[in-house]
Each structure stands twice: as C-alpha cells, then as structure tokens.
Design brief:
This protein is mainly beta and 546 residues long. The chain contains five helices and 30 strands. Among the domains are: 41 residues; 160 residues, no CATH class; 94 residues, no CATH class. It comes from Rosenbergiella gaditana.
Length: 546
C-alpha cells in the first residue's frame, strides 16, 4: 500500500514538475515562439504570439499579448492587442474549448476565413472589447469599429463563424452595411439555426435614430414587433417604381411602425418631413394592415403635394383609401376609394378638386396613350367634383385654357383594360371662360354621357365673342373612333372655326350651322379625315376626305 501511495505521489509530483516546466517555458520568449511554430507547422493555421502572462489571483485565466491568427495561405483573421483564455474542466476532453475567450483592442477580418474552414477553438462565452471588424470588399461591405459585446456559447462551424445557436449582446460604432453607415448600434437577442430574434435594436443612421425589435423565421420571413424611426434624412438613387416594385421588398410583417420627421431625396422625387403610424403591416401572402401618414411636402417629377394626409387599410390583398387630402396645384384635392388586388380595379367613391391651377405636362397626350401598370386594370370615379379649377395646356400646336371650371361626375370609368379613355358614366361641365387655340369661349357648358359603345357631349352651349353656340358631339368607342359634330349659332365670327378644326379659310360674322363627320384614332388626336358642311345665310363650304 505504501508503495502504491509513493508511486501516485511520484506521478503527481512529476506531473506538477512537467506543468511547472511547461508553464516556465511558455512564459519565456523562446518557449512561446516554439509553441507558435509547432502549431503553425502541425495545423492548417498560422499563429503568432508575442507574450503569455498569468496572474495567480485568476489561476485559470491566461493572457496573451499581440496575437495574430489565421488560415495557412490566407491573411490574418484576427489581430489582437490582448487575448484572454479562461480554462475549464472540458479542456481535458476538448483542448480547444474554453470557458471564456476575451478579445481586447483587436481587428477581425472575417472575409479572410474560407467558407469550408472550421475554427479549432470554441468557448462558453466570447467577449469582444473595442474590437474592429473589417471587410476589404467594399461592394459587399460589413465593417464596424469599437465592437463591445458578448456571444454565448461560441461554437463556430463551417460557413457559420459565429455558430448556429447562441445569444448575443453587442454595441458598435460606425457600422457599415452595404454602403450605409450606422452609429451607436446596440443589438440584443439570440439565434437558433435559421431563426433570428433581435429583442432590442437601436442606433443612429443618416442624422437620425431608430429603435425596434425584429425576428426572422427559418423560412426567411421577417417579423418586426415594433420599429420607430426619428429624424432620418437620406438620399437614394432609386426611383419610386424601383422601391415599390413587386420583387424589391422582402417578405415582412410590421406590427407597430412609428415614423417621425423622415425626409428622403430621390432622383426625381422628394419626401419632406414625413410622419407615419402603422399597425399589422404585411406584404407576405397578401397586403394587410393599417397606415396613416402625413408630410410637409411630396414632390414627384414636376408635381408638388403640400401637407398630404393619407390613411390606408389593407386586407385580403385589397387596399382601401380611407382618406386622402392634400394641397396641390395651388388648390386642394381629396379622395376615398378601393384598389382590388386580385382584379386590379380601382374604384374612387370620391375624388374632388378645389381651386386648383394646373398646367398639363407637355407629354400628357403620350401619357394617355400608354398602358397603365400591370396592377391597374380599370379606374372608376363614382363621384367626381371640380370646383373653380383652372386647366392650362401650353402646347404651341393647340394651346387651351379653361377658367373657373366646375365639373360633377358620376360612375365615370376613365380606364378599362389598362387603357385610358372614357368608357362609362355621366358628367356635367361648366367653365366661365375658356380659350381653345387662342379663341375665347364664354360660359361653356355641356353634359357628358359614356358607355362601351358611345361617348356623347350633349347640349353644348357657349358664347363666342358674345354670339351663342349650341350643339352635340358623339364618338363611337371603336378602334377608328368615328365621330360626328353638329353646331349652330348666331352672330358668331366664322374665323373661330378656322382656328379650331375647319381646314378652309373663313371670314365674316353671323349665323351658321355646321355638320362634321370624321375619324378620331385616339382620344387626343386631331381627326384623320373630315367630311362636312358649313352653312351661313350667304355662303356654303364643304370639306371631304382627300
């Protein structure tokens, strides 16, 4: 028995002597250099350490100064001023696993780690103190300064250098993600394989701040329980159609959205001082949620909207326009309606304009010939109202202006099968004064009726230099659009008709009657062929297709 105890004691003393010898060797400059060479020669990694220190007040923790570590044939993955390793009982079975690894004042270059590599170390807890993250590829950048945080446990694997399951708590300065800089970024949460949960996220971006919570399911869908953006101002090179394109936004659900004083400048659009609130917003299987927003101004192209206010409710793929009102064209506009996502039909129960002063863009005729976007099939105005409007076209070929315009319309279908037109409904039109190709008309009034077969302007009335004119106009809704016009009047200057559509010179003043037939290839084009008779008490003129 005594012999066995002596043998055990000898083994323990030998072990302690070897540990003491190894400890002394590693503490020496020669010993640590030899250990680094051995690791670099026998593993697929290169390692450089300047000094190893140890404090017996923390017997299981070793500190390494000026560490460089990376894969063979690759630039360094880690360059650290100080690295602390805390041992654990698992060291006996898993030498590469530590209780805690602390990196202080270091630099991580994750792009220097090949995807198939698996780091030979792990820890129950990884702590970073004032660590810098670099990415030498600016086209896919992810970099940060002053990273402080904890990740637990840290179990790196192939293509997952942070591991597949862990909790985290980090803060960082100057975080760059895809050319966007975030400051004072704070994030807390956990990751479980493909599922990610960020219980708290905050930071500063584009001179503003944001706070929120978000999670990603294993299928890649994002859930945002809350998100608040404050005083953010930024520029983008994307057009509105690109931002709101079908495939431009990931599938996301936002339960509570708050936006305060957001401003965005695009290539041909500006949103100034936008504030919004949204609940249960989603673009997953179908649009859903509620959104209310207002802004100081919105500019799209040459149109400016002042103090717009908008409330939307979406569900089952449909979007209800609960309220829209805004200053526009020096007047106001308001609307209510519904867009049906399955059919692409838009129905506006109310569309009203008041005191607008609007100059048509130079390409408005081409715009009306173009097809609507694929998500809009038809547009119907159940109730249209225009009060005291001024409409101007400065096209030099045929300028016109309508002053003090009043319009009331019902069930007007202004688009069908993605094509602008007037396919149904009725309206009443009045303008106190109008000018067509530099010819004045006073008190212009008519009724409009439309269906799929015919568009008619009935009971046309007006004053041409004091002379009354009455008549009717009808257009057949076919590809060639044949139309007929009949007018008659008293004490009217005949030169007015030469300015409008009559191809022969006219002179004088008096009573007349006019019958004109022709084809109108489009709703904005001049007649391609004319056939008609202009009668006065003293002469008759005829015109026929050439």
């Amino acid at each position: 028995m005594k012999l066995l105890l002596k043998l055990l004691l000898s083994i323990v003393l030998l072990f302690l002597a070897l540990v003491s010898l190894g400890y002394a060797i590693l503490r020496s400059h020669w010993g640590i250099a030899a250990a680094c060479r051995w690791i670099s020669d026998t593993t697929p990694y290169h390692l450089s350490i300047e000094r190893l220190t140890h404090d017996w007040s923390h017997p299981l923790t070793f500190q390494i100064d000026k560490v460089t570590f990376g894969e063979d044939g690759q630039p360094a993955l880690l360059i650290a001023g100080k690295l602390s390793l805390s041992l654990t009982a698992r060291q006996l079975m898993s030498p590469g696993h530590f209780s805690q690894i602390t990196v202080e004042q270091g630099t991580l270059v994750l792009s220097n780690l090949t995807p198939e590599a698996t780091l030979p170390i792990s820890a129950d807890r990884l702590e970073l103190q004032a660590v810098k993250l670099l990415n030498p590829y600016p086209t896919d950048s992810l970099s940060a300064k002053q990273i402080n945080g904890v990740l637990s446990p840290w179990q790196p694997s192939q293509q997952a250098v942070l591991g597949k399951t862990f909790t985290f708590n980090f803060s960082a300065e100057e975080v760059h993600v895809a050319h966007r800089q975030f400051d004072k970024l704070v994030a807390q949460g956990n990751k479980d394989h493909q599922r990610l949960n960020i219980a708290y996220l905050s930071g500063a971006v584009e001179r503003g701040t944001f706070t929120g919570k978000l999670s990603r399911s294993s299928e890649g869908q994002w859930q945002i329980p809350s998100l608040q953006l404050d005083n953010i101002r930024f520029q983008t090179d994307k057009r509105l159609t690109e931002i709101f394109g079908v495939n431009s936004l990931p599938e996301v659900t936002v339960q509570d959205l708050t936006i305060n004083h957001l401003s965005i400048v695009g290539p041909d659009w500006v949103v100034n001082d936008l504030s919004a609130n949204g609940q249960d917003l989603t673009n997953t299987a179908a649009f859903a949620g509620r959104l209310a927003l207002n802004a100081e101004s919105v500019i799209v192209g040459t149109d400016q909207w002042s103090q717009p206010h908008l409330r939307l409710t979406a569900g089952d793929g449909n979007i209800s326009l609960d309220q829209f009102n805004s200053g526009w064209a020096k007047g106001t506009v308001s609307a209510q309606g519904l867009w049906q996502g399955k059919t692409g039909d838009i129905t506006l129960d109310k569309l009203s304009f008041s005191d607008i002063r609007y100059t048509l863009p130079s390409d408005w005729r081409q715009f009306l010939q173009a097809q609507l976007p694929a998500f809009i099939r038809s547009i119907t105005l159940n109730n249209l109202s225009v009060e005291n409007g001024l409409l101007i076209d400065i096209n030099p070929d045929y300028p016109f202006q309508m002053t003090a315009t009043h319009i009331t319309g019902n069930q007007l279908q202004i688009a069908q099968q993605r094509q602008w037109g007037l396919w149904g409904g009725n309206a009443e039109y009045y303008a106190a004064a109008a000018t067509f190709n530099r010819q004045d008309i006073g008190a212009l009034w008519f009724k409009l009726n439309a269906n799929n077969e015919r568009l008619a302007l009935q009971d046309i009335k007006g004053l041409v230099e004091g002379g009354p004119v009455i008549g009717d106009l009808a257009i057949t809704q076919s590809s060639t659009r044949p139309f007929s016009l009949s007018l008659r009047g008293e004490k009217v200057p005949y030169t007015a008709f030469s300015r409008w559509f009559w191809p022969h010179p006219l002179s004088g003043k008096g009573n007349f009657s006019l019958i004109l037939n022709g084809n109108l290839p489009s709703i904005t084009a001049s007649p391609s062929s004319l056939k008609g008779v202009f009668n006065t008490p003293t002469f008759t003129q005829q015109v026929a297709p050439e």
